Hints:
Two copies of one chain form a homodimer. Chain A is α+β, with helices and mostly antiparallel strands and 544 residues long. Chain A is 28% helix and 21% strand. The first copy, chain A, contains 15 helices and 17 strands. In chain A, strand 4 and strand 5 form a beta hairpin. At the A-B interface, helix 6, strand 8, strand 9, strand 10 and helix 7 of A face helix 6, strand 8, strand 9, strand 10 and helix 7 of B. Chains A, B: Residues 1-44 are annotated as: Disordered. Chains A, B: It catalyses: tRNA(Asp) + L-aspartate + ATP = L-aspartyl-tRNA(Asp) + AMP + diphosphate. Chains A, B: Its EC number is 6.1.1.12.
Amino acid sequence: MDEAAPPSKKAAKKAEAKARKEALKAQRADARQAPSSAVELDDPAKGFYGQAPTTPIVFSSSAEDISLRNFSNGNVEGKTIILRAWLQTSRTQSAKMAFVELREEGNWTIQGVATATSEPPSRSHPSRPMVRWIAGINPESFVVVESEVQRPIEPVKRCRVSNFELRITRCYLLAPAPAILGMTLAAANRPVVDFDDEAIGAKAGVKEEEETDKKGPPAASMLVHLDNIAMHKRAPVQQAIAEFEPPSLIGAASEGGSNVFRMPYFAQEAFLAQSPQFYKQFEIAGGRKRVFSIAPVFRAENSNTPRHMTEFTGLDLEMEIRNDYSEVLYLLEGVLLYIFRQVYRIFKDEIELVRSVYPSSEILLPEPGQEVRLTFTQAQQLLREEGPAEFRHVRDDEDMSTPQEKALGALVRQKFNTDFYVVDKFPETARPFYAKLDDTAAEGSAEGAVKVTNAFDMFLRGQEILSGGQRINHPDELEVRIRAKGIDPASPGIDGYVQVFRQVGVPPHGGGGIGLDRIVAWYLGLPSVHLAAYYPRTPRRLLP
Amino acid sequence: MDEAAPPSKKAAKKAEAKARKEALKAQRADARQAPSSAVELDDPAKGFYGQAPTTPIVFSSSAEDISLRNFSNGNVEGKTIILRAWLQTSRTQSAKMAFVELREEGNWTIQGVATATSEPPSRSHPSRPMVRWIAGINPESFVVVESEVQRPIEPVKRCRVSNFELRITRCYLLAPAPAILGMTLAAANRPVVDFDDEAIGAKAGVKEEEETDKKGPPAASMLVHLDNIAMHKRAPVQQAIAEFEPPSLIGAASEGGSNVFRMPYFAQEAFLAQSPQFYKQFEIAGGRKRVFSIAPVFRAENSNTPRHMTEFTGLDLEMEIRNDYSEVLYLLEGVLLYIFRQVYRIFKDEIELVRSVYPSSEILLPEPGQEVRLTFTQAQQLLREEGPAEFRHVRDDEDMSTPQEKALGALVRQKFNTDFYVVDKFPETARPFYAKLDDTAAEGSAEGAVKVTNAFDMFLRGQEILSGGQRINHPDELEVRIRAKGIDPASPGIDGYVQVFRQVGVPPHGGGGIGLDRIVAWYLGLPSVHLAAYYPRTPRRLLP
């Protein structure tokens, strides 16, 4: 190519656009296929590998969870470990042997080996079909493996953990990647070749580097990086550069379009973020195990009450789920209880000063191990049976009103002696489309029973302070729920969201969001959230 | 009043609006008068009190700066200290004796006593005119006092520091408050009585509490609190509730109106903040000694370059100045150098990983004590004398261009062996209206000489990473500079800003702002700031 005249910029753009369209088509078609060869039914190693079951996976009782970054601390050799990781490459050495590279966060990688024996398969002996299956997993799929840590014959230089390797004995596919990625990890980790952000219309595809660097993998333009946002973020170089910051300006109304501020933005229209929800999920798709953010969020709601503001500070967290969504619930509950206990210890003087002006009772917190967690159904039952008369007929499939919440807070305080508690398993009618349905309940429940979600709220003095839960992590399941909510999956804002789940495999995850101003106000028992904000914004007030 | 029928809501609002207008008028008239009786010219204590001179104040050589919150650590009795504080009350006991209450941050208060003797005035003996002058200082003025710490006859229960008092020997007024405050501190520290935020139009005034609570000082509505934002923030209860968070939505284009995003906002128009500049200054007016913030800022600039984004994260700091603006310069310079040194120590692996993809040289930092600080004039002279030919005629009264900055960076590296340096004393033509002019230079300089400011930029590898300086803290001076920049002081956004300086006395202060994404990008030598942002926003790009 060096001799040929370089193609004109316009022609190059056109060619890139075409390449993208084709890549996108291929990717879409591929996503509908099984991502790798199916488990062979008569394989004696059946059960030790395959698509992850919906029920919890059973590992060896001796297996430990150890992160790769902790391999240098202590003796791991000979241990049986469980690793949840991105499979970034796989290759077969022979019909009996496959090598994979597994990656946790950043560039924490290790080599895995699966070796079939002719002995009967057991915990320590994969079968040939299992080896073949592992070698066929699409790169960037998310897997969980059980393996024994051993010393390689010689250091594995390609991997950051070079002095150990994993002898794989079980391997399950938690989230498959498509066969063709919009951008490979190798490309994502190369220098961006072009920062021109002129809009082209197409949405995916890899641009071959025009410079003649024949040795490396192709590099991509910034446009391609951003169109393949999850792969962009998975690149170790990108994870080394930046921390998560959700944007305020967004290109489409994200969650349905109501109560969103819109504004002219050069040749297009911009919207103000109503929450960092989609973006923190993109971080999980982008290979982070846990992220948090502190950022303003905006609600164009014409509510002139002491509980509402049009701009407030959102504290958000999102995390990978290892086994069960209750990991998210326990973590958030623990964080809040820790904060409530510490804040009084550290800021006693300030809190007492506030109480001298705005009297409030001390907050009752549960003893460790005595945390109160009600299901939504239990909470409604409590209200029906012991609450005020007007709540005698509250339903299990309808969200709680603010007066209901306050009445529940009084009942919980009286019965359980705590001002802080969790209400779990909200009905799907009360949650957005991305809330994961509770599979266990659905299977065993009667016809017409209320569908509930793995979603919860946390309350303080009868007021909601945190909303969280597990999110759907499979694109088809997501589309079903989006349609069930009467939203078109192809509508602006929604399409790009679902597309991220098709671009790559996304592990199970969940999280929660806190309104900082509200949690401060309710903790201190203030009469208005406007006192907790430093410059409260209401439908009528933008100054100072 | 208890017997009379309560006035209708509408009538009450009208009356309140009228009261506010009158209060505002009185306040404005008053601000133009001397805030307290003038120093008597034949007073032998002359020089120990009065309006602060523009030259540095000379204190006793033994005097120490000790904050009230540090009074409990160590033996302060008998020490001579310097305290910069808000004078919150003053009263005369007799012609020979005045009591004041002095407040630092929050509710850190102490009693001060000034006692005149008939002996010749000296360091330890105020005169009667001095006592009278101190007693006449308007509440909420900002003063600096030199005093001896002594034990009071009995504990001063009204003050948080109750077991000590200050025997005042010198007292200077740094920033006078008006005789009539829009809201007193006592009112600001009472519970807000009304959260109705219906706009009224008028901008100041105190509303008498309608409830019959005859014992306390009058309480005020949230509207009055927000219209008197500095007093609202000075209230200890408010400082105990919240930390500084600048808003993104603002009611007027702040700094001139260009490059600002605007949007429909219910019945009015809203703008997106271009910087937290005014708000961090309001915090200093509101009685904080130092504030910082991390918040998005927005620029509606149609610049499609690797250096520009329409949304980025601003790191901002603002602080009270004790003696000289170089305190701000040294602090910011020290913070940056500390970060640069630590970040390489802590994140060496990540930085080397980034360098393996985006090669960059190691950053040269100055040895402690060898920091490079050029004046703008020196920098331009260097460019003229030793820079590329095209910069042979750069002027001292014109801002540097990006190519000039880069050429300067190369020259400084070559001459001083550092990639980090400060350029100070920018010409007033290159700075916004709120930049404080360098008084010392103006006095001694020739007719027609370039007016310079106490403002600086900090550079890394020839690119600006921080902009900072001293701000004007007197409203009249501010108005002069606003007019000199061709802006109407009564224009939206500007009027409210100047008004805050009229509402209360604001101490000398300064600060700086950093673009987080740029500092990361230039530190790592990245080809575009878009790589440092997690979701870069450009005029053409809002997705994902």
